[in-house]
Write a structure and sequence with these properties.
- The complex is a heterodimer of chains A (406) and B (254).
- Chain A has 9 helices and 20 strands.
- Chain A has helices at 8-21, 40-45, 51-56, 87-92, 104-109, 116-123, 351-359, 364-380, 386-401; strands at residues 60-63, 66-69, 72-75, 82-86, 129-133, 141-145, 153-162, 167-174, 179-188, 193-200, 208-216, 221-229, 233-242, 248-257, 263-272, 278-287, 292-301, 309-318, 324-333, 339-347.
- In chain A, a hairpin with a 2-residue loop joins strand 2 (66-69) and strand 3 (72-75).
- The relative contact order of chain A is 0.10.
- Chain B is an alpha/beta fold and 254 residues long.
- Chain B has a 6-stranded mixed β-sheet with strand order 6-9-10-3-11-12, with helices on both faces. In chain B, strands 2-1-4-5 form a 4-stranded antiparallel β-sheet, with helices on one face. A two-stranded antiparallel sheet of chain B has the order 7-8.
- In chain B, helix 7 links the parallel strand 9 (168-172) and strand 10.
- Classes of the chains: A alpha/beta (406), B alpha/beta (254).
């Protein structure tokens, strides 16, 4: 759907954002947020979008009963406990509820980290959804991104609002056959809980950049799990604002990458702005064949955020010498009564463990597979829903079993 | 069953020879014990037989049931029927014990061209063994050896042995870290498992384990060689006088 018109509120917001764009540091190799990153991702993104591209762009839709990663179906279902509309319709509507939300978190996110690509997205949204969740649902809502090869460029813009006390799970998946830049602004009301699984599979053959900005109210919970299976080049930026006491959040990521020179780039900033909040970050990368995984994870603790509990662990398993794990853990703490920790390791497969398994007759490939599965299990354990965790574990196991046989 | 002929082994990293010409022949049904002071090469011998890397075979042969053992991969040795109970069993966080046991058993069966065991039959089998060794269900559900005491880890080794049914078992200082009760339990497991077609190589510092697992032959190993062979009374002699009488024998061969 192409919208020629936008509302006056979007137009004035857009003007304001345009004016302040000049102060946002552009993507460049010297920027500490882009150093060592794959900049090809950006040169692909800045290409002009043509009219034809937009017509061919199928965009995003809510996919009802099943979860697929690269076309393999997992049995999960969803029901209607949500209201969804096109973001393009909303920004054309003078009275849209989204006018109180759209762009606010993107603007806020620029304060500590320059995010020029998120700004580009705010100024040029092309497709996306506004989703409001007002009732809890045990069944996950599956968002299946489907883009078309002839679409050069997809600027996807989403808004998710989870109302007070509502619990929901969203699974984002699908292929990505064009360059993809998404921004999702998420608002969690008091006691709201959102589990978000972002599953990116091998069919993502073009660069994909996604931003998620989340404003969290008192006692809300946000659990994010990212999976990157041989993605060509992904960059994910997550920024959370923990604005009330008693908030819980977990950001976990598993990257399994062994196609030559493939890349994953995870960037997380957690702003502890209130007391007694807890955040966890668990990153696991398994790399082979000269692949790279970058993790930049920062915990910011404001002076009023006493009793903060912040944990960050980034670990990699390097299966060949030229694969790289580049990790930059950061703590910026202004409160004095906090527990914050971070740790980062890179290692090869443990020889003693491998020998133990082999000595019991386990075949070498199977033994490696078991150790990889064991290595990533800490991140998978961050997924609360046992059925999703087990579906996903099985999927990853099957995938991993081919990991060494290519 | 197992024939070791003039085996010489060095450490890969240090180029230091540890085993300096060792010969040993073990027939089906026999229990052999190797005793010796620290650094005599006992654990190197067990590691080399199990196929651990980090060692260079300088010379000599190891023949197992007619095949060249040193040429076989670690997992192939296991499928041939060789089992080493580790001195320090490895903890593997994230790998469930049951998953590990079933994978190991079925991998071996597959290598031997046998049908894989289904989940129900496997559970029945493993639970029976666990019960005999007083290993709790809770322990079985944990990741491999994680959170297990020294005694529990050794019982896990014996459970693996009973499940995998090897024909040749190396017990590498299985008594270390065990109290008397645990040692009795482990020994009972081993004795129940022994048969006329199975052989054992028991590596130990101390005679006490040999009160429970009674050897047919006792070998004293000093400085990479077997310097004395006798029956179980040789172990009692060592218990009384220590290794000092044998150290000279080791040096004498230089």
């Amino acid at each position: 759907m192409i919208h020629a018109n936008t509302s006056s509120w979007y137009d004035s917001l857009s003007q304001e954002l345009k004016r302040s764009s000049a102060s946002i540091e552009k993507v460049n190799r010297r920027s500490e947020y882009w150093r060592k990153s794959n900049l090809d991702i950006v040169s692909d993104l800045v290409q002009e979008i043509s009219e034809t591209d937009l017509i061919n762009l199928k965009g995003t839709y809510i996919h009802e009963p099943e979860l697929t990663i690269d076309g393999d179906i997992m049995e999960l279902a969803s029901d209607k406990s949500y209201k969804i509309s096109s973001i393009m319709d909303e920004i054309a509507d003078e009275d849209s509820f989204t006018k109180n939300y759209f762009g606010k978190l993107e603007e806020k996110s620029q304060k500590l980290v320059p995010r020029p690509l998120a700004r580009d997205n705010s100024l040029n949204p092309k497709v996306g959804y506004a989703l409001s969740l007002s009732e809890s649902s045990k069944k996950p809502l599956v968002i299946h991104n489907k883009t078309n090869k002839s679409a050069r460029n997809c600027f996807q813009r989403n808004l998710i609002i989870v109302k007070k006390g509502v619990e929901a799970t969203i699974i984002e998946t699908g292929n990505n056959l064009s360059v993809f830049n998404s921004v999702t602004e998420i608002y969690l009301d008091e006691n709201a809980k959102l589990n978000y699984l972002d599953l990116t599979g091998e069919n993502n053959i073009f660069p994909k950049i996604s931003h998620k900005f989340c404003d969290m109210a008192e006692k809300s919970t946000f659990n994010h799990f990212g999976l990157r299976l041989n993605t060509k080049s992904t960059r994910n930026e997550i920024e959370l604002h923990l604005n009330g006491p008693g908030i819980n959040t977990s950001i976990a990521n598993v990257s399994l990458i062994n196609k030559k020179h493939h890349f994953s780039d995870e960037n997380v900033l957690i702003n502890h702005n209130a007391y007694e909040c807890k955040s966890r970050q668990v990153f696991k990368s398994v790399l082979e064949n000269d692949c790279t995984s970058i993790v930049r994870g920062k915990i910011y603790v404001a002076p009023e955020a006493q009793k903060t509990d912040g944990y960050q662990s980034s670990r990699s398993l390097l299966l060949n010498e030229n694969s790289k794990f580049l990790c930059k853990p950061e703590l910026e703490i202004y409160a004095d009564d906090v527990i914050c920790s971070h740790g980062s390791t890179s290692s090869s497969l443990d020889r003693e463990s491998l020998f133990y398994l082999l000595s019991r007759g386990v075949h070498r490939n199977k033994a490696k597979e078991m150790l990889i599965t064991a290595f990533i299990s800490e991140a998978l354990d961050e997924i609360e829903d046992e059925s999703i965790k087990s579906e996903l574990s099985n999927y990853i196991d099957v995938w991993t079993s081919s990991f060494f046989h290519e | 069953m197992l024939n070791i002929d003039d085996l010489k082994v060095s450490l890969e990293e240090e180029e230091k020879q540890i085993i300096k010409g060792l010969s040993l022949s073990i027939k089906p049904g026999e229990v052999h014990a190797i005793m010796g002071p620290n650094g005599s090469g006992k654990s190197t011998l067990s590691s080399v037989l199990a196929g651990k890397d980090g060692y260079i075979i300088d010379s000599g042969t190891v023949n197992f049931d007619g095949s060249d053992l040193l040429e076989a991969e670690v997992e192939e040795r296991a499928a041939l029927g060789i089992f080493m109970a580790f001195q320090y069993p490895i903890e593997i966080p994230g790998v469930g014990n049951m998953n590990f046991l079933r994978t190991a058993l079925n991998s071996q069966r597959k290598t031997r061209g046998q049908e894989e065991l289904n989940a129900a039959d496997f559970l029945k089998l493993v639970r029976g063994i666990a019960k005999d060794l007083e290993i709790s269900d809770e322990m079985m559900k944990r990741p491999v050896n994680v959170g297990a005491s020294g005694g529990e880890k050794k019982r896990n080794e014996i459970l693996q042995m009973c499940l995998l049914e090897p024909r040749f078992v190396i017990l590498d200082e299985t008594d270390s870290g065990l109290d008397v009760d645990a040692m009795k339990l482990v020994s009972k497991g081993v004795n129940n498992f022994s048969s006329s077609s199975r052989s054992f190589l028991v590596i130990t510092h101390y005679q006490r384990l040999l009160n429970y697992i009674v050897p047919d032959f006792v070998h004293i190993m000093v400085d990479g060689r077997i310097v004395k062979t006798g029956d179980k009374t040789l172990a009692l002699h060592v218990e009384e006088t220590g290794y000092k009488d044998f150290l000279q024998l080791g040096k004498g061969k230089h």
